[in-house]
Specification:
The chain is an alpha/beta fold. It contains eleven helices and ten strands.
């Protein structure tokens, strides 16, 4: 395998910095009631549909700051993919504007299933923030529990976050191809996109040869909350992904694959993210394309 940074050891806590990646609504509510310093990031985002900022303006967790996945968490689309890694200075500036500091817990949420929130979680961890958690169940879980929301945009004191890239493992196209044969490469897209039956976004349909399909919808229940770790371990084990092998994940543009990385993390399986994903893979016509179930 050829990841552009090394895979962490399963037991070293390298992917979470010693902080559990999820937080439940009651626990977050207790922190906020105690006035524990927490940076709340609203990461609601929709691949097709109204911009997330519109949802934020209609109501958000009190004190939450909106972060735009396209503008703040990814670089400009191009040969590197539709949501490539941002430049360190750009990501650092965006997080500072949102109030992110080195010593303060960050809690990020989206509508419910953590798809966008996981990409923000992964990005902050990749750039070196040690204390980041995703609100399990997101905005829906918060409101269903009867907690208040706000339409006021908070005055944000700029943070002091310093970006140190490379703290989580990533894959390029070469590394993804190698991992598909020498380890386990998971394709996090819906089954019909994996099989090449339809491709609503990218110019070529199909998947990386040797990749195994693991749609991110299977990581969560109907309420958007992640499945228990033992069920996630069982799910990934059926696909051949365990902590005894090198594992990686990709999707269309590195967003839902970050959700897969989070689910793998919960299952105790370190994994590398192919950030460019399918939208990068298909920019090179020499890269092979597979269709069907295999």
């Amino acid at each position: 395998m050829n990841p552009t940074s090394p895979l962490p050891n399963p037991g070293d806590g390298g992917q979470t910095g010693g902080v559990h990646p999820l937080i439940e609504v009651p626990a977050l509510d207790r922190l906020l009631r105690r006035q524990t310093p927490v940076v709340l990031l609203d990461a609601r985002w929709h691949l097709a549909g109204p911009p997330g900022i519109e949802s934020y303006r209609r109501g958000h967790l009190p004190g939450a700051v909106f972060v735009d996945l396209d503008r703040d968490v990814a670089g400009p689309p191009g040969p590197g993919g539709r949501h490539p890694l941002p430049e360190s200075v750009a990501f650092e500036a965006a997080m500072r504007r949102a109030g992110v500091s080195e010593d303060r817990l960050v809690v990020v949420y989206d509508d419910a299933d953590s798809t966008a929130a996981a990409r923000v979680w992964w990005s902050l961890r990749y750039f070196g923030h040690e204390r980041v958690r995703v609100l399990d169940g997101g905005y829906r879980a918060w409101t269903e529990a009867g907690h208040p929301v706000s339409t006021e945009e908070p005055d944000v004191k700029p943070g002091d976050f310093i970006a140190h890239p490379g703290r989580l493992p990533v894959l390029d196209a070469e590394g993804a191809a190698e991992l598909a044969t020498a380890g386990v490469l998971l394709d996090a897209r819906a089954a019909e996109r994996y099989r090449g039956e339809q491709e609503p976004v990218d110019p070529v349909a199909g998947h990386i040869p040797g990749a195994r399909n693991a749609p991110t919808s299977g990581n969560v229940g109907v309420d958007g909350r992640f499945l228990p770790p033992e069920l996630l371990r069982e799910r990934f084990a059926k696909l051949g992904a365990t902590d005894a092998l090198d594992v990686g994940a990709y999707c269309g543009s590195g967003v839902t694959a970050a959700h897969e990385i989070l689910a793998l993390n919960l299952a105790g399986i370190p994994a590398a993210l192919y950030v460019g994903s399918w939208s990068n893979w298909v920019t090179d016509p020499s890269n092979p394309v597979a269709t069907g179930e295999n």
